[in-house]
């Protein structure tokens, strides 16, 4: 039976990172990165504004599509359990140039998502400690401080990261499942028929589906810590699929519960309630619950930041180890055995991305910005897997094999991602702040187009030098 170290050597690498994660910890990292509280609380008001209570059905559509993507990712992680996931898979399925392009896009995408999570976390931190939401430059400073705190946690090594992430899982359970069930069972104000009420049009539902994509990203975090997971070939695929399914169920449960417990759905649909979750919880449980509830939400955001920053650092580490990025990013801290240099650099990149959020009404832009690149990466990876299957370049040989269902699942996942990637990238004024300039409405398109052009230019120039 092959050991983890032996399998890693067969893939071309020596063990450098500390292999100290079990299946639950790897699952927890995936859950913390997907984060039902982070995903749902950020998009609830936008979904209600765009499509009324019926926006919840778009959550189900997004979850179904992402479950198919997670299954494809799980099969790949089973055969190639190595840090840097998508880059490594693309290199083996298609070739080095496609892999490099995928890796650069992936790095940019997760950096954008990290900036988005920090931006969305700042108001909750302000409410917890000062009773008021930070605005403008203050919000940017709070967001940057959260990134720095997450880096401090990650710098101490995988054991400290695991502790924070597990605390986040407890907070997620309370903040989603416990609160959701309590609202549903004891504080229902609306009839179930309201779930079919809509305040939007067909176009609004497409915009809602684009926003819902944010709620189901991050499961690939489990794949990026494969070199730190014991029994990675079997445990990482389990963590990927379980994290997606568990988070999906929790998100839909809480979304339905908060909607049915809301006293004024008309105000939600008119956009008069910027944060519908907190008032609903406080009205139901009482004023005493304000601080505990805010503490739970802040804990989940911190765990999400730690998890996302940790796996982003592993992505950069994986690219630098193959000399696709500066070699110093592949350095591993001798004390904590983590890629601290890589995590520091990508955190600085995320800090720069926060500048898009200087406008207080830029939440929709930030969510689109953070979601768009991740779906581009999903599309590149699933396209590579489909190409390799159809051409016979890849016959899955890991512990998880889809066998005859592999190609149909892969094909449907590709179709879903092609549609949703275009849907997310489509510039929409309703997702930007009121009166936003054109550059902000088109931010997701031009930023990732610029990254793609830059990546292609670097690849072409390196090919000519060789």
Automatic annotation (TrEMBL):
UniProt superkingdom: Bacteria
One family name in Pfam for this protein: AA_permease_2
Record's subcellular location: Membrane
Keyword field: Membrane, Transmembrane, Transmembrane helix, Transport
InterPro entries in alphabetical order: AA/rel_permease1 (IPR002293)
Bilayer topology annotation: Multi-pass membrane protein
Keyword match Transmembrane: yes
Spans through the membrane: 21-43, 55-77, 98-120, 140-157, 164-187, 199-219, 240-261, 293-317, 338-358, 364-388, 409-427, 439-461
Protein name, UniProt field: APC family permease
Species annotation: Nonomuraea guangzhouensis
